[in-house]
Design a protein that fits this description.
Elements lengths: L1 E5 L5 H4 L18 H4 L5 E5 L10 E4 L10 E3 L4 E4 L9 E4 L3 E6 L3 E11 L4 E7 L2 E8 L3 E11 L3 E8 L5 E6 L7 E6 L5 E5 L8 E8 L6 E6 L3 E4 L7 E9 L12 E4 L12 E8 L4 E6 L6 E7 L7 E6 L3 E4 L9 E8 L2 E2 L6 E2 L8 E2 L8 E5 L2 E5 L11 E6 L2 E2 L10 E4 L7 E8 L2 E2 L7 E4 L3 E5 L6 E2 L5 E2 L1 E9 L8 E8 L15 E5 L5 E6 L14 E3 L8 E7 L29 E7 L5 E6 L21 E6 L7 E6 L6 E8 L2 E9 L17 E3 L8 E4 L2 E3 L5 E4 L8 E4 L9 E5 L9 E5 L5 E5 L8 E4 L9 E5 L7 E5 L5 E5 L5 E3 L8 E9 L4 E10 L4 E7 L3 E2 L10 E3 L8 E6 L4 E5 L16 H9 L26 E2 L6 E6 L2 E2 L9 E8 L14 E4 ...
Parallel strand pairs: 2-3, 21-81, 29-73, 30-37, 75-82
Antiparallel strand pairs: 1-11, 2-13, 4-7, 5-6, 7-12, 8-11, 8-13, 9-10, 9-12, 14-15, 15-18, 16-17, 16-19, 19-20, 21-22, 22-25, 23-24, 23-26, 26-27, 26-28, 30-31, 31-34, 32-33, 32-35, 35-36, 35-37, 38-72, 39-40, 41-42, 42-43, 43-44, 45-46, 46-47, 47-48, 49-50, 50-51, 51-52, 53-54, 54-55, 55-56, ...
Length: 1079
């Protein structure tokens, strides 16, 4: 908990002294030694020997060295300052580097509060109390902050370590006496199972909290609060064993340590435990419920049903059955679940039954962009390189024909890649590509593409005029970060570009800035609009986070960002008060209204404007009072319902963190939820955010979570977990280790005392897979597959400065393989293999804070970087961060393009790879994690995107994307036969599916090659040569390989739901359910 207050008035929490003699129910607090026992309280005022001492406090001078006779003091002499104001407690302080204040106390739990600040200067001080970090507290001149923590003393001495500026005005220590005498008064086993407890009353306690931990659990949960020293627990279950403990809460709302625990077993030890149930078997598995039964046991009162996400557990109890059957309707079967059952009677709980696995029966489809083939043609030495997209809607069997000037140039349809080298092509040639489905070539749908003269294209842009700040300083503009979206619905991306003034500032830097401009450009250089964010939006990496995405599903992208009074939209309309100027003399904007605006992506028109949430509120509540931490913004796009995108806007990460989610649908902006670390039970999420975020479905429920650095926020706006490792600069989320299930995260941390300066964790659970203590602010880290000798991605972090060529490189399994490392800024899929290359900058100019864009290949055998591209004539963005304007799969095949600005910002230079590759992968822009990574790439400290699947050496085939483009139309499906023998392994008898559409559509509109059956999470495409079923009017008959379906369902029983879906030629789709009975 952090409180901020100014020099004008000391808040109640400090001025109302927590005098121990007046504090009831806290027990003995005095140090063990005689001299220390003479203290009136453990409240210390730090300063010089001649400075006044605040009433009720004990003086600690700057040269008061600890002695056992005194019982408190410093480990070394330090400096002091006395500013003469604002009061006796805060006017003076001691200061120094890396010193310790110690006080002798009895072992136990203590509430420790520190006050730090300076009436005349800014302050940055870190505190660690008994090994627990309070973090770094920053205050501006004239401001003070209080931070508190409850710690445990086990060696008779409480130690407070101070770092950085090492300023401390006051420390207060309060012992918290735990209740005693906890005892069981009564237990009832059946039918009304209860536990009654009592304990000794604690004088002055206003309430008591009762905690319980079931056998096998790792942590206690609070099960009740009472104002009297007794409690009846009516939520217990027969057969379980519990551990109970109690705390007391005083009038200051400070909670004590837990009492000595007692154990309560809800069993009759004279009765025999029943035998384990047998024969647990699935009956029916659908997208809404999972039903199974088992053979019962004798002398059983009930059965406990347990569920896990892993066959190895841990298992949690999810239900009770009075008979031999259970239907679980509380899960979303987008993943495998594992169940087992135990019988229960008065004697206890039996061993578990056999464990069963359930199939994946729920299919979640995301609405994504309808893209064209993104054809690109480039003149190379031996002809023309041609590349195009394989779309997420394409079947596995799609083939392609390439045409030059209207004539096909490939002998056979291309099936092994999505690129082609035309040896006879010239710079004057024009190309188009046509998909072939089931032997039928699609008609030409796009205009022919002209040939680039080299491996880049300069998209002309229009630089804004410079200006002069109120203090008379001139500035100019340069192109900065960019994003993409299809704003006109033609299937081709447009570029949304930020312009930054030369006086753009980091939040920690004072000074005026020029306005931030945002432009939209077509790929031919046509500027569609310009938005002027105005003087009340400061310019810098942390102020403007622009989200470009089709938020309402109309096929055209919107643009959303923070605005203010004076923002001018793309049509020239002013938002709010055009004359308002809220800049203070330091250039910060710490007052005035704040807005969130959704703009039309095609015209730049403001569609709606609302108050920005989270609001600024009290500036000091965010960690300082001069304007640094209050204006740390993040943003993203997330599919919170699994199907349609939501807008994520966030504020704060050093201390308080607030994340808000919105939907833009049917012309209305509605708030979905807000997460605030200041709210009850969210305190541990404070200080865990990064300078960026990631978005992914980390728990495999089909819905996205917000990976907020060391914390993860669930799709419903509640905290999923926090690691407590604190703030950092870089995080990477994806399938980094294909040898284990789910997604992983590699991250670096800033806190020197953090357990791990670099960590590799299971992003679903937060559990560290491996980590490494660095003892420093680890500022850069990257994860990419750059060494084919090891499975998965390599992860590395710099050992010192941002461009340090040494550090620590690890395999995905945590084996340290090198101290020589490549750059740690960006990685890109560029050349013809599946590994990633290093995107960075060289020739860095310290004065101008720019470098020249480069791409390099890591020579893993010689442990050095080999340059393969230097983008002469371009500049990188954002100083030492060295990022391009954008890196993304913008066109051509699955590999990524990179955009750097030209040196004079007259153009965006778009580079594409011309290396021929035989690797065929669908466009990365139809991968859910990657596409959202492009949306958040411009946020804060830019980071490269990752994919939901492992993309690297020796990779498995990626999953078929589960998506739709626009309308999902009604359909009917019937499967014949609707039963299948999974034990039969021979023969190739097909499953026939008849598909019908609504009255508005003909089945001839279905692209039959895209029809697929999704069975237990596996995608099986229909066989070629479909037909219209003459016996069933207007039904398309397709066939599936029965053996593939049988293999996907092997090991399961009962009735299992499957999905059958596909696309129409115009991009509409259908998705219907069917059931198969397993023999």
């Amino acid at each position: 908990m952090v409180k901020k207050f100014s020099k004008k008035k000391l808040p109640v929490v400090v001025s109302s002294a927590l005098i121990l003699s007046m504090f009831s129910g806290i027990g003995t607090v005095t140090p063990k030694q005689t001299h220390a026992a003479e203290l009136t309280s453990l409240k210390f005022d730090f300063g010089s020997s001649v400075s006044p001492v605040a009433k009720g406090y004990t003086q600690v001078t700057n040269n008061m060295i600890y002695s056992s006779e005194r019982g408190y003091g410093l480990n070394k002499a330090v400096d002091f300052r006395d500013r003469g104001a604002p009061d006796d407690l805060r006017r003076d302080f001691i200061n120094g580097t890396n010193y310790t204040f110690s006080v002798d106390v009895s072992n136990g739990e203590y509430y420790v509060s520190v006050i730090t600040g300076d009436n005349s200067a800014s302050n940055k001080t870190s505190f660690t109390v008994e090994g627990q970090s309070l973090g770094t507290i920053s205050t501006s001149a004239g401001n003070f902050a209080e931070k508190s923590k409850i710690v445990t003393v086990q060696d008779g001495q409480l130690n407070v370590d101070l770092g950085d500026n090492g300023r401390v005005n006051a420390i207060e220590i309060i012992a918290m006496a735990a209740p005693s005498g906890l005892a069981l008064t009564e237990k009832n086993l059946f039918k009304d199972t209860t536990v009654s407890l009592k304990w000794d009353e604690v004088e002055g306690a206003t309430s008591y909290n009762v905690y319980r931990k079931a056998e096998g659990d790792t942590a206690s949960i609070k099960v009740g609060t009472t104002s009297t020293p007794e409690f009846k627990d009516e939520t217990v279950q027969l057969g379980l064993k519990y551990e109970y403990s109690v705390t007391q809460v005083n009038e200051k709302a400070i909670e004590s340590a837990k009492s000595t625990p007692i154990n309560v077993a809800l069993v009759d030890e004279t009765k025999a435990v029943p035998k384990a149930p047998t024969g647990t078997t699935l009956i029916k598995s659908t997208d809404k419920s999972l039903t199974f039964h088992w053979n019962g046991s004798e002398d059983t009162l009930m059965y406990y049903v347990y569920r896990s996400k892993s066959p190895q557990g841990p298992f949690e109890r999810v239900g009770i059955s009075k008979n031999g059957e259970f239907s679980d309707q509380s899960v979303s079967p987008t993943r495998h679940y594992y169940y087992r059952v135990s019988a229960v009677n008065l004697g206890g709980i039996s061993d578990p039954s056999n464990t069963i696995e359930t199939p994946i029966t729920k299919l979640v489809q995301r609405q994504m962009e309808k893209l064209n083939r993104g054809l690109v043609a480039v003149k190379v030495e031996n002809g023309v390189y041609v590349g195009w997209r394989m779309l997420g809607t394409d079947p596995e069997g799609v083939a392609f024909n390439v045409y030059r000037d209207g004539q096909k140039v490939n002998k056979e349809p291309i099936t092994s890649s999505t690129n082609f080298l035309d040896n006879n092509g010239t710079k004057d040639s024009k190309y188009d590509v046509r998909a072939v489905f089931n032997g039928n070539e699609e008609p030409l749908a796009e205009a022919a593409t002209t040939v680039w003269g080299q491996n880049y294209y300069d998209l002309p842009i229009q630089k804004p005029e410079g200006g002069t700040t109120p203090d008379g300083k001139s500035y100019t503009y340069s192109a900065n970060d960019a994003s993409v979206g299809d704003v006109d619905g033609d299937g081709q991306y447009e570029i949304i570009l930020k312009w930054y003034p030369s006086n753009a500032k980091d939040n920690s830097q004072s000074g005026y800035t020029g306005n931030t401009y945002v432009d939209a450009y077509k790929f031919d250089g046509t500027r569609l609009w310009r938005i002027d964010l105005g003087k009340n939006i400061r310019s810098g990496a942390h102020y403007t986070q622009m989200m470009v995405y089709d938020l309402d599903g109309d096929g055209k992208a919107e643009v959303a960002m923070k605005t203010a009074d004076g923002t001018v939209d793309g049509q020239g309309t002013v938002i709010g008060d055009a004359n308002a100027d809220y800049r203070n003399s330091s250039g910060y904007v710490l007052s005035g209204p704040e807005f969130l605006t959704v703009f039309d992506g095609l015209t730049g028109k403001a569609l709606t404007t609302t108050d920005y949430d989270p609001p600024r509120g009290n500036v000091a509540d965010w960690g300082d009072s001069y304007g640094n931490r209050v204006d740390r913004f993040l943003a993203g796009i997330a599919y919170l319902d699994g199907e349609r995108p939501s807008l994520i806007m966030a504020r704060g990460y050093y201390t308080r963190a607030v994340i808000a989610a919105y939907n833009w649908r049917d012309g209305k902006l509605t708030k979905v939820w807000t997460f605030d670390s200041n709210k009850t039970d969210n305190g541990e999420y404070a200080g865990q955010g990064y300078h960026n975020l990631s978005v992914a479905d980390v728990d495999q429920d089909g819905k996205d979570e917000i990976v907020y650095g060391a914390a993860v926020i669930d799709d419903n706006g509640t905290g999923l977990y926090t690691t407590g490792l604190g703030h950092g600069d870089a995080q990477h989320v994806g399938d980094l280790d294909p040898t284990r299930p789910g997604l992983e995260m590699f991250a670096v941390h800033e806190d020197k005392s953090a357990k791990y300066g670099i960590e590799f964790r299971d992003v679903e659970t937060g559990k560290a897979i491996w980590g490494n203590f660095t003892g420093r602010d680890t500022g850069r880290g990257l994860s990419a597959d750059i060494d084919p000798r090891y499975p998965g991605e390599e992860s590395w972090a710099v050992g010192g400065a941002w461009n340090d060529p040494t550090g620590d490189m690890f395999t995905a399994q945590g084996e340290r393989i090198s101290s020589d490392i490549p750059g740690a800024n960006f990685a890109i899929w560029w050349d013809g293999d599946l590994q990633r290359e290093i995107l960075d900058h060289a020739k860095f100019n310290d004065a101008d804070q720019v470098g020249v864009g480069t791409i390099g290949k890591w020579d893993y055998e010689n442990k050095k970087l080999v340059n393969i591209l230097t983008a002469d004539g371009t500049f990188s963005n954002n100083g030492t961060k060295g990022n391009p304007s954008l890196q993304a799969d913008l066109m051509g095949d699955w590999r990524e393009e990179v955009i750097w600005r030209t040196e004079d910002s007259s153009a965006l230079r778009i580079f594409t790879s011309t290396d021929v590759t035989e690797q065929r992968i669908r466009t990365l822009m139809h991968d859910p994690v990657y596409r959202l990574g492009i949306a958040w790439q411009n946020v804060g400290y830019n980071q490269p995107p990752h994919t939901s699947f492992f993309l690297g050496h020796n990779m498995d085939a990626p999953p078929v994307p589960s998506l739709y483009l626009n309308n999902v139309i009604p359909a009917t499906v019937d499967v014949n036969p609707n039963s299948i023998d999974t034990k039969q392994t021979n023969g190739n008898v097909s499953l026939t599916v008849n598909i019908g559409l609504d009255k508005e559509h003909e089945v001839s509109e279905i692209n039959s090659a895209t029809v697929k059956m999704v069975v237990n999470g596996k995608t099986i495409f229909a066989e070629s040569h479909p037909s219209v079923n003459g016996e069933k009017s207007n039904k398309l008959m397709v066939k599936f390989d029965r053996q593939q379906v049988s293999e996907a369902l092997k090991g399961y029983s009962g009735t299992v739901q499957v999905n059958i879906n596909g696309f129409l030629h115009d991009g509409e789709s259908f998705n219907e359910k069917a059931e198969l009975t397993l023999k």
